[in-house]
Design goal:
Blueprint (H helix, E strand, L loop, with lengths): L10 E5 L4 H12 L3 E6 L6 H11 L6 E3 L5 H10 L4 E4 L6 H6 L1 H22 L3 E7 L23 H19 L5 E7 L1 E3 L18 H9 L6 E4 L11 E2 L1 E3 H16 L7 E6 L5 E2 H12 L5 E4 L14 H7 L7 H15 L3
Parallel strand pairs: 1-2, 1-4, 2-3, 4-5, 5-6, 6-11, 7-10, 8-13
Antiparallel strand pairs: 9-12
Helix pairs in contact: 1-2, 1-8, 3-5, 5-6, 7-11, 9-11
The structure holds uridine-diphosphate-N-acetylglucosamine.
């Protein structure tokens, strides 16, 4: 699937642009012909990913602004300094467990930064806003796969709650702007993998919370054994089902969404899209697929269920496929091979 290049030169601000998703999105935007301004406070990422983005794109001139989106003056300044047509907001905390322990830190950071982006975008006028939401807003769904019309459920963590709240804040702000602001909410399922160049990927600090970094770190010998949380779920093999989406496929969805906004193709002022594959994969299947495709063992054992986990969730991506023209293309095997190449790159192997 080729991304249609943007017709006119447009500038996109990517907040949290050095993070896992932000860095891959920056690459895809640049390759589609956008000018990108990257902004980050490096609270949970490493400058090496910015260097990786420059290497992949062959561009030395990508502006990088070190700033905190909770600082309204700094946010106003970046909107004044660059001709921003669209902003993609990633800058947020994302560890579910930490958010339960430190709710105020999560609410303060994730809400304030987004309020500041909207404030500055509103003052400037004519800015399109893309918010990175999550399938977490569906909670434990009554039926799968979930469409964008599946009712949202109360979040099981302050982190999840900030996603639901930011969705509502964007909707209300777009509505009140009378057409001056447009917004798209992308609800991601489980982004995994790394860029095929192995120059950028996920860089979790400390012990990973998410499954794939835990798998790759176990395979490389950094962790002793992967715990599979629960094998007594009402699924075929007893482990949870998720919709694992390749990070490059996910990044390309942002290019489709931004182009839809800047080219005035939106059908509503605030739109929502599920970004997933439509393919459920169990934890055990994922571990087995990783071992098979990479020819490496992942020592694992079954452990009790993890609090807050849902049994099964995967996307119905029809709306994104048909309305945006975007579709996930990579197989789970390709994605797991890329994740392993990145882990080996980190280990210097
Ligand atoms: C979580 C968040 C989601 C967020 C996503 C980011 C919730 C409930 N979930 O999704 O909002 O967008 O991370 O990637 O808010 N697992 C193990 N062993 C491990 C780690 C995970 O068995 O060491 C299992 C989990 O029980 C789960 C699956 O792997 O069944 C996926 O877990 P994870 O990668 O953490 O993602 P989610 O919890 O689905």
């Amino acid at each position: 699937m080729t991304v249609i290049p943007v017709k006119m030169k447009k500038t996109v601000l990517v907040s949290g642009g050095v993070g896992f998703i932000g860095s891959h999105v920056t690459v895809e935007l640049i390759e589609a012909g956008y000018d990108v301004v990257v902004a980050d406070n490096f609270s949970n990422c490493d400058r090496t990913c910015y260097e990786g983005v420059k290497k992949i794109t062959g561009r030395e001139d990508i502006p990088l602004v070190e700033m905190d989106f909770c600082d309204l003056a700094a946010v106003r300044k970046i909107f004044a300094d660059y001709p921003i047509d669209a902003v993609i907001h990633f800058a947020a905390f994302k560890a579910v467990g930490e958010s339960v322990a430190k709710p105020l830190m999560y609410y303060r950071n994730n809400l304030t930064s987004f309020l500041n982006v909207l404030e500055a975008a509103q003052e400037k006028g004519g800015v399109n806003v893309l918010f990175s939401s999550s399938a977490t807003v569906y909670g434990e769904p009554d039926a799968v796969p979930v469409t964008e019309n599946t009712p949202r459920k109360p979040a099981t963590s302050p982190y999840g709650n900030t996603k639901t709240m930011c969705e509502d804040i964007l909707r209300d702000t777009v509505k009140a702007s009378g057409g001056a602001l447009k917004g798209i909410l992308l609800r991601y399922f489980n982004p995994i993998g790394a860029h095929p160049s192995a120059l950028i990927g996920e860089l979790p600090r400390g012990v990973p919370n998410n499954l794939v970094p835990y798998i790759t770190q176990t395979a490389v010998g950094k962790r002793e054994c992967l715990s599979i949380f629960g094998n007594d779920y009402p699924t075929e093999d007893g482990t949870c089902l998720r919709d694992y989406i390749d990070i490059v496929d996910l990044a390309k969805a942002h290019v489709f969404a931004v182009t839809r906004m800047v080219e005035g193709k939106m059908k509503q002022d605030c739109e929502v899209f599920n970004i997933g594959t439509g393919r459920p994969v169990s934890v055990l299947e994922l571990v087995n697929a990783f071992e098979k495709v990479n020819g490496v063992k992942v020592p694992h054992k079954f452990a009790p269920r993890r609090a807050g986990d849902v049994t099964a969730i995967w996307a119905d991506p029809t709306l994104a496929n048909e309305e945006m023209g975007w579709k996930a293309t990579r197989s789970v095997e390709e994605t797991l091979a890329a994740a392993w190449a990145w882990e080996k790159h980190l280990a210097g192997k």
